[in-house]
Every structure is written in C-alpha cells, then in structure tokens.
Fold Methyltransferase.
Amino acid sequence: MAQQPDRGDLLEMADLLTPAAIRAAATLRVADRLGAGADDVVKLAELTGTRADLLELLLRHLVDKGVLTQDDDGTFAVTELGARLREDHPASLRAHLAQDGLYGRADLALVDLLHTLRTGEPAHGAVFGRGYWETVNEDPAFVEALERSEARPQLGWGAELIFDTYDWQQVRRVVDVGGHSGAILMELLHRQPRLHGTLVDLKNAAEVAGRRFAAAGLGDRAEAVVGSFFDPLPAGGDVYLLSAILADWSDEQAVAILRRCAEAAGPAGKVLVAEVNLRVARETPGSAALELWLRATMPAPVRTVEQVKALAGAAGLRPTWEGPVTSVRSILEFTPC
Ligand SMILES: C[S@@+](CC[C@H](N)C(=O)[O-])C[C@H]1O[C@@H](n2cnc3c(N)ncnc32)[C@H](O)[C@@H]1O
C-alpha cells in the first residue's frame, strides 16, 4: 500500500510562502546581483529598492530552503539549486518565474483557483481587478518581458498551418488582429515578399512589434497599430487574421471580436481564424494540473471547429474555406454575409 503523506507533508505542499519568496527573488534579480558582488543585505536592498530588514528575512528563508547559502561573515551566495535563478544560466528560470514576466504573472492568479472552479472564468481578473492581457499590455513593467519573447520561438501551437496551408498569393494586405509582438506577421512577410501587413494589439505588444518590424527591415511593409479588437479595426485589409485569440475569450466576447473583423473586412474581405485547441489528453502525465492551469488562465482553451463556426455565424460570417485540423489548431476562412 502506498505510504500516506503526514500532516507536515500536506502543509509543505500547500505552502505559499516559498513559491512567493522564490518568485520575489527572481523578480528582484537576487541571484544575478549576488553574483555581481552585491552579496550583503544592505547593498542588495539598495539595488532592489527593498527594505533591508525584510530582504534579510527573504534571503534567510531561501537559505533554509537550500536556494542560497550564508557565510559566517553574513554574505550570501547562490547554491547549485538557486543557480537557475541567474539570468545567464543555460537553463535559467529567472524570467519565467519573475512577477513581471508573462508566465510569472499568469501563474500568480492561481491563488484564486477557487474562483475558476466556481465560475469557470479565469482567475486573473478576480485577483488583480483587470484581465491578464490588459495587465501585461498597460503596465510598463511588462515591456521587457515582451521584448524578450524572441520572434521565432514564439511560433508554436501549430502556427505553420497559417503559413503553409492558406493561399497567400492573392492577398495584398493582412491585418493580424491581436498579433502580439509580431512573430507571425514577420514570418508571413518573410515568406510572402509582396504581402503587406498591419498588426493590431494593445499598447505594449504593438509598440514592441513596431520596433521589431523596423529592426527587421520590414518598416515599409509592416505597421503596428495600438488598438483593441473590441473597437473598430483598421479598414483596408484583404484578410483579417485571428491567430490563437478566441480561446482567451468567452463566447459572447469571441462573437464581438469576430464582428469587428467582419465589419472591417467588408463584403470583399475575409476573416481567417487560426484557432488553437489546447485539449490535454487524459493519459498525458500531469494532465489534470495542466488543464487546471489552462482553465484558470483562459476561458475557452478548447473549442471544436463546429463551435468556432457557430460563433462566426453569430457574428455574420459564413465559412468559405477550411484547412486541415491538427491536434492543436484549426484554420478556417470566413466571408462576411
Ligand atoms: C494568445 S496571444 C496570440 C498572439 C498571436 N496572435 C499568436 O498567434 O501568437 C493573444 C494576443 O491578443 C492580444 N490582445 C488581448 N486583448 C486584446 C485587445 N482587447 N485588443 C487587441 N489585442 C488584444 C494580446 O496582447 C496578445 O498579443
């Protein structure tokens, strides 16, 4: 028979302090600063804008947990375990765990997992008073994290369907609605030398994308516009692309976004929905944890092609082309009725 965990194990599993302490250390770049010589609390407090007495408690707790060591003279250093909090570690977790990082921020909402269990809604709004995407796009602290999301590694979740299966030869201008920091649009423009593109996203993402287009020499073919897809979208596109957008929104909101695309596309334009389907197979190790995380961070990680078509129908769009469906993504073209 499997051994039952004792009470101490359960309390340790439910501990919130240590995860919060590690994430605070990652955000404050404690490991890097210790490595660069700020190895006593007073220096470190100055550099991190924290109170030395409280920072010392944090460091001592991390010593207790084996993340740091403290010498007899009071100076702190990073252990092998803590080394992954350094930015230059080959398997660095610093940016991933930082509270002003894209994943770190998403994780923090898990403290109100109960909200998701009760309502089915993602927990970020309940914890922070505004949605995840508004937070990372309106708070200047997240610009760096968006800058760091390098162009190519961002291309995931079957994004190649967009490049490989759709007939881009006939398209003059694509509007990438919610295009993040430009990875997909840049890849499309590299592959389609005659194509022009407009990216629309909230402030931080659009500004990062604009800088990226200029740096990549695409300034004459790509522009980034700050705007919300709940407001009227720029006119003049032949195709309005929604890649991995709808999963972040409820049915009602998804229909509103599709309607904005339909209005901007007009009768001659198309709306191309390249939606992700983040179904987690039950047999996948850790599937329950992964699925709970997804449900706590986005409202609809899984919609079937038929469900996407129904939402589009409600927004006045009829299907005019259907690409392949993979385990993670579908691609559907619609035309305003
Ligand atoms: C899951 S990401 C998808 C990014 C990209 N389209 C892709 O396929 O990789 C969702 C994007 O929607 C953007 N977004 C969220 N709310 C928005 C809004 N109201 N208006 C415009 N963009 C928004 C986010 O900033 C983010 O870039």
Observations:
- Residues 152-280+299-336 form a domain with the Rossmann fold fold (CATH 3.40.50.150).
- Strands lie at 68-70, 76-78, 173-177, 196-201, 222-226, 239-243, 270-274, 317-322, 332-336.
